[in-house]
Amino acid sequence: MTRRIKFTLGAIAAVVLSTAAFASEVAPDAVEYGDEGVMTSLTGVAGDPAAGAETFKSRKLGNCLACHANPDMAGEQFHGDVGPSLEGVADRWEEPMLRAIVANSKQIFTDETIMPGFYSLEVGKHVRESLVGETILTAQQVEDVVAYLGTLKE
Amino acid sequence: MKRLLLAGVVLAASIAGSGPVWADPVEDTLEIDGMPIVTQTAAPEGHPFDEVYSGWLFRSAETRDLERDTFENPGMIAVEDGEAMWNTVMGSEGKSCASCHEDASVSMKGVGAHYPKWDADSGKPINVELQINKCLTEQMGAEPLPFNKNGQRELTAYIKHQSLGMPVELDLTEGDMQSWWDRGKDVYYTRTGQLNLACASCHETAMGKMIRADHLSQGQVNGFPTYRLKNGLTSLHQRFRGCIRDTRAEQPKAFSDDLMALETYVTWRGTGLSVETPSVRQ
């Protein structure tokens, strides 16, 4: 009996905690795109460049190297060139613009842009059932990638 | 001087990029056992490209060489299996394909170059796989071959191989072929999945670019069923489904109306290229 109460209390605490963590998160359809990009953090938690590099590299997460060369990751094989090289990308764009491009580049470039929106629900038809309503990256993963991109200066 | 500057810029760009960067298909010519194969030709009217290129031109020298020689081509084993099937009695009527069609090198010549065709009975385009099933069920008293199983790929490869070297040309004036072409074009340009990509995103807009280790071709289908070095003999609808899955979308069923329309449209996009079945690809 005591054990059950403990368990229930623990579960409630976990729910409360995770709700708190999401409370300041901007929902994908609430992201505000302006001329300068997306001005405010999607989470309010500073991005972690090391975690961002992992998300960038991972084929299951960002898979950014599929389309972009990145000399900072010269140790990784096979960099694509569907999109521009990211060498010195932080010299070309400020953080809010990097955030906007990662979250939904079609808001910044054109609808014809190939790059997927990594934090957007403007997606293609017939989305795989298990992914309906899901974004490619979480808000924090986007912040981490943006923090990593911020380190790519010449 | 201007040219020198430009050369400098190109040089700098190629040094800056890591890994191999090819902007274009290679310049090379293909003969298979002495048979000239058209791998590059002027596009038909209304085509988004000026020139159509076989996927062969986008593969490595080693992969290209495998296709030059039918003894080296690993897809030819499937063609031999297909030939055995052609001569095997299937179904209650006691007939094989050869019972009616005799020598495939004569009777099937051109089939691979001109399918899909209009099928008045179903009121839809029909491809080689479905034509085989129609024969099996209506003439031979046999069960239809399930998608990609029981030798469907092998028999299809054998039949299409009889048109090796012949230019692809569809007759869009038959029946309602034109409206299926229109529908296929819609499918081609429709973005699907969480990644929000259309066929055109990779095979038109980004044609010639590298996506990781893969050199993006025009997505031509003149070599299907194709032998892929990473997964063996691969049928066209299997490849369509794989591409669509990779956009993180639900996969349409093989031979569904959308994919039959897509086969019609994409086959047209390769008009004038030689049939290469079984081609060898990455």
Characterize the structure shown.
The complex is a heterodimer of chains A (154) and B (282). By secondary structure, chain A is mainly alpha-helical. Helices cover 36% and strands 0% of the residues of chain A. In chain A, helix 2 crosses helix 5 and helix 4 crosses helix 5. Chain A is globular. Chain A starts with a helix and ends in a 5-residue tail after the last helix. The N and C termini of chain B lie far apart (41 Å). Chain B has two domains: 162 residues, Orthogonal Bundle (Cytochrome Bc1 Complex, Chain D, domain 2); 85 residues, Cytochrome Bc1 Complex, Chain D, domain 2 (Orthogonal Bundle). Chains A and B meet through loops of A and helix 10 and strand 7 of B.
Mean residue pLDDT of chain A: 90
Count all strands of chain B and give the number: 11
Q: Got a strand count of chain A?
A: 0
What would CATH call the architecture of chain A? Orthogonal Bundle
Indicate the percent of residues in helices of chain A: 25-40%
* Beta-strand content estimate of chain B: 5-15%
CATH class of the largest domain in chain B: Mainly Alpha
What is the terminal separation of chain A in angstroms?
62 Å
Distance between the termini of chain B: 41 Å
Low-confidence stretches of chain B: 1-22
Residue share in helix of chain B = 25-40%
- Mean pLDDT over all positions of chain B: 93
Characterize the biggest β-sheet of chain B.
3 strands, mixed
Shape of chain A: globular
Largest interface: A-B, 30 and 30 residues
Rg of chain B (CA only): 20 Å
Shape of chain B: globular
Oligomeric assembly: heterodimer
CATH superfamily of chain A: Cytochrome c-like domain
